Known about the structure:
By secondary structure, the protein is an alpha+beta fold. The protein has helices spanning about 1-15, 45-50, 75, 100-105, 135-150, 175-180, 180-190, 195-200, and strands at about 35-40, 55-65, 85-90, 115, 120, 130, 160-165, 170. The strands form two sheets. A six-stranded mixed beta sheet has the order 7-6-1-3-2-8, covered by helices on one side. Strands 4-5 form a two-stranded antiparallel sheet.
Amino acid sequence: MGTRRTLLAGLAVAAGLGLSSPGLAQQPAAPATATAIFAGGCFWCMEPPFDALPGVISTTSGYTSGHTVDPTYKEVSAGKTGHTEAVKIVYDPAKVSYSKLLQVFWRNHDPLTANAQFCDRGSQYRAGIYYGSDQEKAQAEASKAELEKSGRFKSRITTEIVAQTTFYPAEDYHQDYYLNNPIRYKIYRGGCGRDSRLRELWGAEAGGGQS
């Protein structure tokens, strides 16, 4: 009886100290949110398809994968900083998977054109997946390999897959541009030929909303 009391007392002390026996160890809780960074040309046009996904909490237009600290839109658009226009997505991984984000990403850009997207030209419009973990890297590379093996495209896929570096949010007037300036946004998007090229590349899958 004394041994049992001693054991119970020891467990109570361990609990009070935040300790636990190996058999009682709890699994760490899944993160409430995660982030993903993609570049697919003009960042105005990359926000809407992700904003429409259930489980996506926010999208932010910005610049990534460059060599200048705190770049401005004028510097980036002139191709002087090495950055590309990108979008950072904050999402709930319990509601939408990274693989789903990849599916939507591929079907919202032209993966066959290097250093350009649609009417925009220059390395500042290059397409890319910027992974934040080995798991994301593996999923990104697998999704690219799957497309290459599918025979869908005759040309080489040029979308880069590289590790994340600092992401700099763009100026406020770029955020939610499609919502705040819907007429100008539609004129730009239509004039740039984005949707017609996406349909040419992806057919009914353009936009990537299909599960």
